[in-house]
Amino acid sequence: MFNQQLITNIMNKSELIDAIAADAGITKAAAKLALESFLGNVGSTLKKGGRVSLVGFGSWSVSKRAARDGRNPQTGKTIKISAKNVVKFKAGAELDGAVN
């Protein structure tokens, strides 16, 4: 069973756009455009192997995960897991302090 409090504390993209628009005193359309620009620029920077850092908030980076052997939990058979790039986020001091 899900914890109802956790479910009600989830902010989705449209709620974030509404909050940005209200805080910045701009239209929802402008807030949506700004958020999509931010997300697109973070994604393209990471795709190029770069790093994005917002002082106090946190930083995103890409890490390479090597190929490895794993197990199929249903059958127990060994399977090959391909190498891949994974996105990592490290919270900054201000964000960490705000949640602790």
From TrEMBL:
Pfam families: Bac_DNA_binding (PF00216). SUPFAM superfamilies: IHF-like DNA-binding proteins (SSF47729). This is HU family DNA-binding protein. The keyword DNA-binding applies. Keywords: DNA condensation, DNA-binding. Belongs to the bacterial histone-like protein family. GO terms for molecular function: DNA binding. The keyword Iron does not apply. It comes from Flavobacterium cheonhonense. Transmembrane segments: none annotated. The lineage of its organism: Bacteria, Pseudomonadati, Bacteroidota, Flavobacteriia, Flavobacteriales. InterPro entries: Hist_DNA-bd (IPR000119), IHF-like_DNA-bd_dom_sf (IPR010992).
